[in-house]
Design brief:
Elements: E1 8-12, H1 25-37, E2 42-45, H2 57-71, E3 77-80, H3 86-95, E4 103-107, H4 116-129, E5 134-138, H5 140-143, H6 149-158, E6 162-167, H7 172-181, E7 187-190, H8 196-201, E8 206-209, H9 216-227, H10 231-247, H11 255-263, H12 280-292
Parallel strand pairs: 1-2, 1-8, 2-3, 3-4, 4-5, 5-6, 6-7, 7-8
Length: 297
């Protein structure tokens, strides 16, 4: 599938849990129908927002199969496959069923903090092993290490199978440098909801969004408006959703977005340890904010 498929709004899907902690597949189906019907352009399974480190291997496979079944090839599907052991990721890729998977999203190795040279070798090895295109994922707030613009640019120019990056460094200058110096068909995707509008205005191709679990229609409209150079419309939606975009990360992700999904009667707010649900005071503020937002009640 051509990388053009990954323009616009991708949603980093949560994994709904019941109160007893088991995976709620019915709620997952409901969430998928909601985001697909309301216009997101692609889906991301087993990203950070899915709480995949707390899912067993069997649960991960079951969640992906459930998403594939409900999606039924309606939208491109990106699968999170990352980690901090290159050889283990290659083994996982070799064991993965890539039926109905259009790309993988692979995070910068965390905890062992590789050098930029190590990152280039790591992602080049993954790109060579993957039967589908690779989207890099830079999120130094979680990994403890920033993938520098020069590293991304080198990977983009030297690996045909690396088609884009989800950039969540929060450094707009770095993201603009990547946009400027990568090939035209390389997708630079916002990894931060609150920065998506300015990044799209600067030339990003879209977003992989947490917020779009709750407000798919409005967020898609904002991104499309930005891609079509309708900046007044994009700005209006951006500012209507900005408080919400900040609130959902206040007590951690996906605890915040799951609370919002509970308020909107889409899924429960339950998360697995070591994550906990958001504070009662934030829940009250989130409820009031949702009631004040002029979209998708």
């Amino acid at each position: 599938m051509h990388s053009k498929s990954f323009e616009g709004t991708g949603v980093a899907l949560v994994t709904p849990f019941r109160k007893d902690g088991s995976v709620d597949f019915k709620a997952l189906e409901k969430l998928l129908e909601y985001v697909i019907t309301d216009g997101v352009e692609f889906l991301v399974a087993l990203g950070t927002t899915s709480e995949y480190p707390t899912l067993t291997n069997d649960e991960q496979i079951a969640v992906v199969n459930s998403i594939k079944e409900t999606n039924n090839r309606r939208l491109p599907l990106v699968l999170g496959i990352g980690g901090n052991s290159t050889s283990e990721i290659v083994t996982k890729i070799q064991k993965t069923d890539f039926t109905d998977i259009d790309a993988i999203l692979s995070v910068v190795p965390y905890y062992n903090k590789p050098s930029q040279k190590g990152m280039i070798q790591h992602f080049s090895t993954i790109a060579a092993a993957s039967p589908v295109p690779v989207i890099l994922y830079n999120v130094p707030g979680r990994t403890g290490k920033n993938m520098e613009a020069d590293t991304v640019i080198s990977l983009a120019h030297n690996n045909n199978n690396i088609i884009g990056i989800k950039e969540a460094s929060g450094d707009i200058t770095q993201v603009m440098d990547i946009i400027k110096r990568t090939p035209d068909n390389f997708k630079v995707i916002s990894g931060e909801d609150a920065l998506t509008m300015p990044l799209v205005a600067a030339g990003a191709s879209g977003v992989i969004s947490v917020l779009a679990n709750a407000y798919p229609k409005a967020f898609c409209e904002m991104v499309r408006a930005g891609l079509n150079d309708d900046h007044p419309k994009a700005r209006e939606i951006h500012y209507n959703l900005l408080n919400f975009a900040e609130m959902i990360f206040e007590d951690g992700n996906p605890s915040g977005i799951k609370a919002a999904l509970q308020i909107k009667n889409i899924t429960q707010s339950a998360v697995r340890l070591p994550l906990t649900t958001i504070s009662r005071s934030l829940y009250g503020k989130l409820d009031a904010e949702i009631n004040s937002i002029p979209y998708e009640k």
